[in-house]
Amino acid sequence: MADDVTDTSSDASAAPAAPAQSVAADAEAVTDAAAPVADSTGPAQTPTEESVSTAQAPAGESATTEASATTAEEPASTAEAPAEPAEPAPAEPAKPAPAEPVEPAKPAQAKPARQDWPIGLTVLGYGGDYNPEQWPMATRLEDIELMREAGVNIVSLAIFAWASIEPREGRYEWAWLDNIMDRLAAAGIKVALATATASPPPWLTMKHPEILPRTAEGVVLGQGGRQSYAPSSTVYRDYAVKMAKAMAERYAKHPALALWHIDNEIGCHVPHDFSESAVRGFRTWLRRKYRTIERLNEAWGTAFWSQRYGAFKDVLPPMAAPTYANPSQQLDFARYSSDTLLEHYRKLRDAVRPITPDVPATTNFMVSLNTKWMDYFRWAQEVDLVATDHYTIAADPEREIDLALAADMTRGVAGGKRWILMEHSSAAVNWQPHNRAKGPGEMLRNSLAHVARGADSVMFFQFRASKAGAEKFHSALVPHAGRESAIWRESVRLGEVLTSLAPVAGSTVRAKVALVFDYQAWWATELDSHPSEDVSYGDRIRALYRDLWYRGITVDVLPPGGDLSGYDLVLVPTLYLVTDEDAANIASAAENGATVAITYFSGIVDENDQIRLGGYPGAFRDLLGVRTDEFFPLLATEQVTLDDGTRADVWTERIETTTAEVVRSFTDGPLPGGPAITRNTVGQGAAWYVATRQDEAGTTALMDALLAESGVQPEAQVPRGVEAVRRRSEDGTGFLFLLNHTEEQAEVPANGTDLVTGAAVDGSVTLAAGAIAVVQEP
Ligand code: GAL
């Protein structure tokens, strides 16, 4: 639910004056002064479970009884744990120390901990979130039947069930969950079991209001929605760990348990939190990173604006301030926040792991250009398999391209391995301005587009549409209309199609084009007080990707430190922030024969957001053979013309070529006659620089040249609007996915067997408007 994010940190410059928020001094104890107001004697607000047999023990129930799982009334720990493993913080030295700051090494590429596919499905997974706690027993029984009818083989259970399991502190009601776990197991349906910690129950936030998150302006975000917890709060963490352990102990031996679904969309609503525990956590994180306050001062450039700190205890997160907060501080706070959310995942995973050592764990990422604040390349190191959620934007006429990009990004985060689509929607969502249902066949095309790009499971939010609550207008596999509905017929058909695609499971995608993507560069690019507010990190990613999508050319998404060998074309859009090491990695791709194309506002700063002096584009100056002395961003209403007649906007810069040749020049605008696109021969390859934001025709012309030079070919000769992607199994068998997103019949050259229809494909396949085919190639 990407665009429901409460970005509590952004645009501090526009925010009102700093709040009258009292921030506790460094390392002091948390004030637990808020008196508990929980109604510990009132009636239990539990769902009525008369129809559920509470006597029935779950299959394979562990020795844990309800009594032993009861949360003890001990005070929760008040010490705020750091987000990273403890190291002693050195005393402040009298003099500044010159050493380099210590920063955890950035992973070169995601490497999920397990090499195999650990959820026990040999076919493609099909299912979704299932929330039986919202329904009476009769509906639950019907649900199991409907799941069987549609071919559902995996569901996510108990995601928001904490208050249904523990409606009052220490009072556990397991019977309903035992019952549904047993019934799912009996039906052969696997369970991705949640830790039930995604939203604290009301008694917990009433008892411990200090666990609530806070915005940069000091506003406390209360209970009544969801995710109302500060990820840095160890008070919350202790309760959540206790809940996760209780779940693990209860279902450790249960035959339905296939996968841990840790929390849910961690960071979705509260990517940045400014609570008192976050203040302490940030200081601890900074101490670990910099060791001395002078190193922090150096990294943050605090000689500017009288910001020099004398001690870590004086440092705050970038709260709302009279004007621009220190950009390096903002960047470190974004890093701290991502690390803290990941730490929340790790703590919960480590709570269940010793109890269920053979059950893999994951959490649903939100990989796309709509979710910015979690560095999923780092996160991927901590999950046993990558899972993601993706929702199309109904108002986007090219939403299939956004979907494809998100899916390719997910495969990149997964290090090229297969992954799980943990949630998408069968039709409308509830959180966009206008929630239109999907068109005929769109759910199938969306599902197969994810599979084509490496997903081995297709899951939905949710199985049955809710009748109450904020998401009651969100679609599901079983809509409000019930079985007599287009969606249900499409749900059944999707199950049949996924069954026919069983041979695809385990195959992978490998492209010849690499697109370099980096969360931290994204954060830094979009900080305030930059040359132009119109430079958006995702803009050129989308434009270049879109051009390739229409050509049927597959793209792998890699971090800047990823293994770029084996790629003929390497695209580097707007890599404003880059480390020396990563810049060298990109340069060596060109040295080794790739065509590298870098777009404007790249290479400008180091990892501390400090300018690389000596001329732009800093880190890439030598690689590109150009030197820029000034930027001339365009006004919102301005456009410029290039000497091939194409147009551009947003950005121009004054370039002097050193070793590069000029490919295109500006004919007007602030820099008539100046270079707009350059090419530098480097080793066995070349490095292109694109110094402006090209229009569609210009982007196409650029891509024609890049593809001609690099020799990259499409997966298939497709008409515009027909998506083509190939998965390949270890034995070399190809699976060519063809998805016709147009309203015209299309003809695509192919040979083999269409797995969906079973028909032989001899020379070409005909796709009706909106139709799909998956050709297993000889
Ligand atoms: C996701 C979330 C689900 C549901 C869905 C609605 O953010 O994980 O619980 O809210 O969005 O689109």
Description:
By secondary structure, this protein is an alpha/beta fold. Helix content is 26%, strand content 16%. The protein contains 18 helices and 26 strands. The strands form 5 sheets. Strands 5-4-3-2-1-9-8-7-6 form a 9-stranded parallel β-sheet, with helices on one face. Strand 6, helix 10 (376-379) and strand 7 form a beta-alpha-beta unit. Helix 15 crosses helix 18. It is globular. The two termini are 40 Å apart. 53% of the residues are buried. Mean pLDDT is 88; it is low at 1-116. Beta-D-galactopyranose (GAL) binds next to loops.
Short description:
The protein is an alpha/beta fold. It is globular and about 75 Å long.
Spell out which ligands are present.
beta-D-galactopyranose
**Cα-atom Rg, whole angstroms?**
27 Å
Mean pLDDT: 88
> In which order are the strands of the major sheet placed?
5-4-3-2-1-9-8-7-6
Write the layout of secondary structure elements.
Blueprint: H1 66-69, E1 125-130, H2 137-150, E2 154-157, H3 162-165, H4 175-186, E3 190-194, H5 202-207, H6 234-251, E4 257-261, H7 276-290, H8 293-300, H9 327-352, E5 361-362, E6 364-365, H10 376-379, E7 387-389, H11 399-413, E8 419-423, H12 442-452, E9 455-460, H13 486-500, E10 513-516, H14 519-525, H15 537-551, E11 555-558, E12 569-572, H16 580-591, E13 595-599, H17 621-624, E14 626-631, E15 640-641, E16 647-649, E17 653-657, E18 661-665, E19 675-682, E20 685-690, E21 693-694, H18 696-710, E22 722-728, E23 734-740, E24 746-754, E25 760-767, E26 772-776
Parallel strand pairs: 1-2, 1-9, 2-3, 3-4, 4-5, 6-7, 7-8, 8-9, 10-11, 10-12, 12-13, 13-20
Antiparallel strand pairs: 14-17, 15-16, 16-21, 18-19, 19-20, 22-23, 23-26, 24-25, 24-26
Helix pairs in contact: 6-9, 7-9, 11-15, 12-13, 15-18
The structure holds beta-D-galactopyranose.
Beta-D-galactopyranose is lined by residues 1, 264-265, 268, 389, 391, 423, 429, 461, 471, 474.
